[in-house]
Specification:
The protein is an alpha/beta fold and about 350 residues long. It folds into three domains: about 70 residues, Orthogonal Bundle (434 Repressor (Amino-terminal Domain)); about 120 residues, Response regulator (Rossmann fold, 3-Layer(aba) Sandwich), CATH 3.40.50; about 150 residues, Rossmann fold, CATH 3.40.50. The chain is about 45% helix and about 15% strand. It contains twelve helices and 15 strands. Helix 1 packs across helix 3 and helix 10 crosses helix 11.
Length: about 350
Amino acid sequence: MRTASEPNGRQHPTRVSAADVARAVGVSPATVSYVMNGRSGVSEETRAQVLETAEQLGHTSTARASRLRSHQSRVIGLVLTDIANPFYTEIAAGTIDAARARGYEVFLTHTQEDPTTLRSIVDAMIARHVDGVVFTVLHPDDGDVVRSLRSARIPLIQVSRRIERIDADFVGIDDRAAAAEMMEHIVGHGYQDIVTIVGPRTSSASAAREEGFTRTAEAHGIRSIASHRISTYLSEQGGYSAVEELLARKALPRAIVCGSDAIALGAISALRAHSIAVPNDVAVTGFDGLFPGASSLVELTTVNQPRREMAEQALDLLTRRIDGAGGSYQSVLRAHQLRIGTTCGCPRQGSEAIV
């Protein structure tokens, strides 16, 4: 560390700034900041030069990050609900791309909502010394796996769903507000007989969506009863089975509002298998925005989630934690959009409308 002389001849340390490091390397202070925070956009050669120079000059923040990185595996765990669900497929792709841009590889796995599988996965990740973990699967009773990671000093971040009571970063959308917007649109068509089909209620996202659907319907005088609210597995098969259940009970409604696009596609498949037209006989909506643009197969009315942006933001927050510079825990809500297709009963407009 550099020193400066005092009048009595003693030496005292002078704080080395990012600008000092930038001048010594011949790069901008922004480049030094990117390196310190483990962000992309800097070549590996420049990154190495900045870290080496920072160590030599005694830039404490960067030196600390360098020491932390020297003990890292450069692997991040990603625990998904079900890789077969296109929502999680895109989260995975976005996470892997963002991780590699920061010099990390990804240990990818899924639980299919099984708590025993989650426990064994987390144990394996701890044994392999991953640097951090991204979760899309946590339920309220999964606190023990979080405590295990805390004990191992491995940071985590929650994406899409969360355990409210734990101290951890979160990236998602306002599921309750998005669901309310969708139900407002459906009620606007004049539908009164409406069934909602969501994923497991132990998922904070599914529970919030069901609450948004139900409260909005009730605000319009549409009575919500248990038989009109179904919870199923987050998959096409889950949606298909839910509609088969409605048909068996002879309780097919005028509109089915789904908590995910995968569920909606399964519902539409079941209806078509019974020669029930969508939307003329039964309107159907989804949630997630998995199928951008008009599709020749289905023009699904849904809620767009910025999945890749969510993954990128999650990796940014997580790598800051890994580098010891995370600060206070953050809850980041990204913007969603209602995308109007034809499955709700709206006319085809050449392409789907974003509102």
